[in-house]
Design brief:
With 96 residues, this protein is mainly alpha-helical. The protein has one domain. Helix content is 79%, strand content 0%. The chain has four helices and no strands. Keywords: Cell membrane, Membrane, Transmembrane, Transmembrane helix. It comes from Formosa algae. It is a multi-pass membrane protein. It is found in: Cell membrane.
């Protein structure tokens, strides 16, 4: 398996986990308990993972000659909760 693809799978997993924690834990704490500390704590790592995922997805898509439709799906997966896990199962595990 290509090293960029391995890296994309790891970053995608971490990005998905950080997104779920941000939406499922940090944001409710912010608005219910009025404590923005967890959003601040998880926001920056999630943002960095998101940017890394997008860059890696484009690089892997070009390298593996994915169609524009596939690249678009993989990129859109990063903004849908659990989307990166679906993209991993559908595209990353089956690639090369």
């Amino acid at each position: 398996m290509n090293s960029l693809l391995k890296t994309l799978r790891i970053v995608g997993f971490l990005e998905g986990i950080s997104y779920i924690l941000l939406l499922g834990v940090a944001v409710p704490i912010k608005y219910i308990l009025h404590d923005p500390q967890y959003v601040k704590l998880l926001g920056m790592p999630h943002g960095l993972l998101f940017v890394g995922y997008v860059v890696l997805a484009i690089l892997v898509g070009v390298e593996l000659k994915w169609s524009i439709k596939t690249i678009a799906f993989v990129l859109l997966a990063s903004i849908v909760p659990f989307g990166t896990f679906i993209a991993d199962k559908k595209y990353f595990k089956t690639a090369v």
